[in-house]
Amino acid sequence: MARYKMLVLSRPTEGCEDEYNDWYQNTHLAQIISLPGFIAAERYELAVNMLGEGAYPYIAIYEIETDDVQSAFAALQDAAGDGSIVMSPAFDTASVYASIYAPLGERISRS
To answer: Which domains, from first to last, does the chain contain?
Structure first.
C-alpha cells in the first residue's frame, strides 16, 4: 500500500491562538484520522524561521496509507462539505496551505 504525507501549514485567527490550538489538537486531528486512508497525525510549532518573512507558525503532518490517494482526498473534501469535519473560527482559512505529497526516493537515515 502506498504512503503519503499531507502537510497543512496554518495560523490562528488574530487573538484566538489558545482556542485554535485546543480545537486543532483535541478535535480536528481525530476528525481527520477517522477518514479512510488517514492513519496518523502530528502537529508542530515554528521553532526557527530560517529564511524569509511570514513563516507559518504551525504545521500538521498527516500520514495517509492507500492505493488510491484521490479517494482519500475525496473523502476529506466530502467530510468538509457535509459538516463531518467541524471547523473552528479560530482557524484562519484565508491563509492555510495544504497539499498531499508522495515519497520520492528511499528514506535516508543516519546509521
So the answer is: 3-45+67-101 (3.30.70)
